[in-house]
Structure formats: C-alpha cells, structure tokens
Amino acid sequence: MDGVLIVAKPTGPTSHDIVGLVRRLAATPRVGHGGTLDPFASGVLPIFLGRATRLAEYHLGEGKAYRATVCFGAGSTTDDLEGELTPHAGPAPTREVVEAALDGFRGQIEQVPPAYSAVQVEGRRAYAMARAGEKPALRPRSVSIERLELTEWDASDPDRPIALLEIECSAGTYIRAIARDLGAAVGNAAYLGTLTRTASGHFTLGDAVPVDVIRSAAAEGPEALRALLRPVDTGLEAWPAIRLDAVELADVTRGRFVRPRDPAARPTDGPVRLLDETGRLVAVAAWRDGRIAPQKVLADIAPAPGAAPDATGPDANGPGSESAIVSAEAGSGGDARVGHDG
Hints:
The protein is an alpha+beta fold. It has helices at about 15-25, 55-60, 95-100, 125-130, 175-185, 210-220, 220-225, 245-250; strands at about 5-10, 30-35, 40-50, 65-70, 75, 85, 105-110, 120, 125, 140-155, 160-170, 190-200, 205, 210, 240-245, 270-275, 280-290, 290-295.
C-alpha cells in the first residue's frame, strides 16, 4: 500500500505509536512519519506508506504551524506541562506586556533548545544528561518565526494567566522554548500547556483523518483504507513535472539518464517529478548536463516498447531495493520531549 495518510494525532500516543498503528492496520512494513509530535500534543501528523517513504525527506524541512497555550506564573523542568513546576513569586504579566514582548520573537531568532531534547552534546543526548541530573550546555540555533500572534487571553486566575498563541515557524523550532523564553522576557516564568499542530508543510488539520476513522476503514478492508490515502507526491505539486513516453519510462525505471522529448521540459534547479503517460509519479530526478538523472525511482521496471518484459526485477535504484528506502521514523523515539516540538 503506497501513499500519504494525513493523520489527526490525538493527545496521548507518541508519533511512533501512530506509525505502529498504521503499519499494523495497513499491513505495510514500510511506514514513517513527517515530524515528531509530543504525546501531549495533537494535530497534523503526515504518515508515509510504502514507496511514499522514499519521499518523506522532502517534507521534513517544511514549515509548521501551531496553536499553543503558554501558561505564566510557573516554570517547568521540561518547559512543558509534563515537567516539575516551580511557581514564580513575582506579579503576573498583563496581556499588553506579553503582546509587546512578542516582537522580540518574530523573524530570525536565536533559540536555545530545551534541556530535555534530542540535541547531542559531546556525543550524548541532552535529555539523557538532564535525566541524570546534569545540565547540558546547549548552543543557541537560528530558527525563523514567520507569524506569532496572541489570539486569546485567560486571566481567570490572575496569578497564572494563559495566552493562546498562533505560530508559523521553520522546522526545528521548539515551541517549548518560545514559552520558556517568553516568560523570562516579561520578568516572569512560563511553560507550554497545550499544543496543536495545525499545519505541516502543505498538510493541514482540515485534511487530517481522525484515528477512529482510520480504524473503521481498516475494519472494512484494504480498499476502504486505501481510499484515505493521498498520492505519493502529495505536497510536491509545485515541483516541475515532465511526462515520459514509453521509451523514456523504460530507461528511467532502469536508472538511466534521458533527454526528455516533452516540449514543456526546461532545465531547472532542484528536484523534478517524472510522470508516466497517465500522470502517475514514477521517479524524482534532477537536471544534469542537459539530461534528466533519476534520483529516486518509484515505479517497477517498465518493458521497452516492442521488447519482452524485463525479468531481472527492480535494479539497485528501484523501489525494490531496501537500501534505497528513506526511513522517516529514524530518531523519532518513544519519548515526547526528545524531538523537536515542530
């Protein structure tokens, strides 16, 4: 089963748990996800099945969007609601003060990752050091915050107000760190409360499928589950596309360079989608010296026109090669706070 399943992850399970569930329901061994969400977080979790796993890497660096609550009046050892909280003795900030402080977090900023993160420090994971009672020396890193807006303010507990933020940011941004640093910026303390990912690249919450719907479809049978999948190149539609004729298709599926006859083909930087005559993605390629060089072949070897079918099976560059599969699960782990929030 090949395709992209946009899951509406609920709070509770890890991203790895969702991958395991989809793998079992789809009876497909090759399954990966497009960016870790902490267990307490919910929202968009792209899942890639079968040959789509080979394209997951193109989505990992895409921007993300979140809806997050920031709780003032206390700090957290993990910078989120799952850590040990330490109340702050000073007066709580007002909405006006917090909104004014947001200016310092927009655009390109330097951000120190949380202590409980997967960042390596001298060969060790920061979270492992933190759990051992050590304080990892984490270096700041550049992230981009395209949008940061305070949309709601709850001061029903005046000592512990809560801000609801809408955030659009680059991949690798720690939303927990924004909450932590925002608390410090207003002379208080704060931690991340709830977190919902509303978009991951081109995948949005409105397109996401709840887990119970996925379970129900799987109970109906493979076709019902397959109906929930998007094409393997979903989200990559903006890339240039070249249609191949039968001869070119036969060459590309064997990993050979081709000089496309499609009059719309124009050399360009970056990846190019290669399509068969029906419009189905068969490979990702790049221009090289006026020719197209296949980089990831997703289709089975196609017989050359007028020739007997090739009985050799997929070559080393084809989808049958396990070494060619890109695993999006690597590093996801089972612990929420070891990965990026976004």
